[in-house]
Design goal:
Largest sheet: 6 strands, mixed
Shape: elongated
Strand content: 5-15%
Order of helices and strands: HHHHHHHHHHEEEHEEHEHHHHEHEHEEHH
Structural class: alpha/beta
Number of helices: 20
Strand order of the largest sheet: 6-7-8-3-9-10
Distance between the termini: 66 Å
Number of strands: 10
């Protein structure tokens, strides 16, 4: 993970490491400055009882100069490291989100929405949390090498103290990492669980309130939050034990250095300035060494986040697209064929050897009982999924030969449950596309939406609220239909898309589609008898198979199962 981060952001990493190394060099330089000031200014001043302004000025200039350069190194490191961290987070959030767009609905149906939100947010944050201190840790490693060299050159006994301190710190960190990884892993999973429960509660707010389930939902969220709390407390207790030990070891090292150094001075084997130099380095080692500890303590959680993010990025369920950008268009409406199509979901057969033909500009109604496979046919036509066997043809060409944008230009779908963004009516119709006011209005009129839109407070600029909360179900469906129509699709798939509008409006919509200047081929999944009667042809689906095709009135006469279905669709109407 760290290697990937460095390869993606080499320049900020190099600048940050340069600042960290500069900081480390200035620590050593400051140690030498203080050692020299001790030997050449402080001790002679005590001996003579007097010193000079020039000597004080030189000493002050040296100390301030080193401090200024050290401060510059800190600024350089922090700015570059922050830039590196936030850029990486942005890159991987974008990658995860784009992968979500590429993966088919079958993959999304296997993963909870809250978990997907956690992948794109908390997991990416956790993955790159160590980046903030990584350059500092590299600079600290450089500092430790220099310190080791200084200790060896200065005095072997002090070197032994330093190496013993380093071994103790390394042992503590290894032990800490071993203990903290399991609760860190569980905590990251618990974060996703909390996000999932919260999302479900918010998404199902109407159900929760109307059924009086507020207390139960609060209790469910509390349980998830407590699991996360428990894992974080476990991690916090481990840090509470190890952090003081890591913090105290360098200070203990200073005391040992002073004891050993004083003994070495009494033997005449060490100068006071040399002891000051080593003691000064030890007093400043605590924080830099702590950064290595922080890096190592963050790595377990980072690795968990990285694995969860990679689980999304390496998913291979996406639909491969072809290279064909355009289709020959002999007619405004597309010719559509499902040829011997079979499809199973989670090893459960949904469609079996289904063959359907829809000529250009015709309206085909797909009819059948609940669970017959009607919505699956709609999903295959717009390539939200691919058949396990057989082909979906658009103008006699396999739809898999088209690029993703080409499919979007040829076909459009409107579902029963229409999703609207918390934007204006116009933005919900165009979805960022470059359409003129005339095109938007024409699409709205064809969807029988223009009249009610003009009555809204700000017309087409009215903000509809989250998921279109300020509109009725029928109004949302008509705006969603206008969204599809403004793109002039050659194939329009309506999956019970007018179920929330009254029959008069529905009839006007379907009649308008057939009378349009450039009529699209329309495949409508329908249950209303009035809707089905307007179709040029009806495809009767039962248990994943095509049982009959033909006009509505003919099927009523010749197929008892179809007649029973139509009779059950609207009580009071006979076959």
């Amino acid at each position: 993970m760290l290697g990937v981060a460095i390869r993606l952001q080499p320049a900020p990493f190099a600048v940050a490491v340069t600042g960290a190394v500069l900081y480390s060099l200035m620590i050593v330089a400051a140690a030498y400055v203080f050692g020299a000031v001790t030997d050449r200014l402080i001790l002679p001043a005590f001996a003579a009882g007097v010193t000079t302004r020039a000597a004080l000025a030189v000493a002050a200039a040296a100390i301030v100069g080193v401090s200024v350069v050290k401060a510059a190194g800190i600024v350089l490191r922090r700015v570059a490291a922050a830039a590196m961290q936030y850029r990486l987070q942005g890159i991987f959030r974008t990658r995860v989100t784009r992968q979500y767009q590429r993966l088919p609905l079958s993959w999304h149906q296997q993963h909870r929405t809250g978990e997907l939100l956690s992948n794109a947010n908390a997991d990416v944050d956790a993955t790159f949390a160590p980046i903030a201190v990584l350059p500092f840790a590299v600079g600290t490693a450089f500092l430790l090498v220099i310190t080791a060299a200084v200790l060896i050159v200065t005095d072997p006994f002090l070197a032994v103290v330093g190496f013993a301190l380093g071994a103790a710190l390394a042992g503590l960190q290894i032990r800490y990492n071993t203990l903290v990884k399991p609760p860190a892993t569980r905590a990251q999973q618990a974060r996703a669980e909390v996000s999932s429960v919260a999302h479900e509660s918010f998404d199902g707010a109407v159900t929760v309130k109307t059924l009086g389930r507020e207390d139960e939902e609060a209790a469910r969220f509390e349980q998830a939050a407590q699991r996360l709390r428990d894992e974080l407390i476990t991690t916090g207790r481990l840090r509470a034990v190890f952090d003081p030990l890591v913090e105290s070891l360098p200070n203990i090292g200073v005391l040992v250095v002073l004891l050993v150094g004083t003994w070495r001075i009494s033997l005449g084997d060490l100068a006071p300035g040399e002891l000051v130099r080593v003691a000064y380095i030890f007093t400043l080692l605590a924080f830099p060494i702590r950064t290595i500890g922080f890096l190592l303590s963050e790595l377990p959680r980072s690795v968990v986040g990285w694995e969860r993010v990679q689980g999304v990025l390496t998913a291979r369920d996406e639909l491969p697209h072809g290279a064909l950008e355009e289709l020959p268009a002999p007619a405004p409406g597309a010719r559509v064929d499902l040829v011997s199509v079979s499809f199973a979901h989670a090893d459960t057969p949904v469609l079996s050897d289904v063959t359907v033909h829809a000529g250009p500009g015709r309206t085909i109604a797909v009819v059948g009982p609940t669970g017959a496979g009607k919505s699956t046919i709609a999903a295959l036509l717009v390539r939200l999924a691919d058949p396990d066997t057989g082909s979906v043809l658009l103008d006699a060409l396999d739809i898999r030969m088209l690029t993703r944008p080409a499919v979007a230009r040829q076909v459009a779908v409107v579902f029963q449950h229409s999703f609207l963004f918390d934007e204006s009516v116009r933005d919900n119709i165009t979805l960022g596309g470059s359409y003129s006011d005339g095109q938007v209005r024409a699409a709205a009129e064809l969807a029988q939406a223009h009249a009610f839109i003009t009555e809204l407070p700000d017309g087409y600029e009215t903000i509809v609220g989250e998921r279109g909360a300020t509109l009725s179900g029928g109004q949302r469906q008509r705006i969603a239909l206008a969204r599809a129509l403004v793109r002039n699709p050659r194939l329009l798939v309506l999956d019970d898309a007018t179920s929330s509008v009254d029959t008069t409006v529905e009839r006007a919509i379907l009649t308008g589609l057939r009378a349009a200047e450039l009529p699209a081929t329309v495949v409508v999944v329908a249950s209303r008898r009035a809707t089905i009667a307007l179709a040029d042809e009806v495809v009767f689906i039962e248990r994943g198979r095509v049982r009959a095709t033909g006009r509505h009135d003919v099927l009523l006469e010749r197929h008892p199962a179809y007649a029973v279905l139509m009779g059950g669709a609207e009580p009071g109407h006979g076959p």
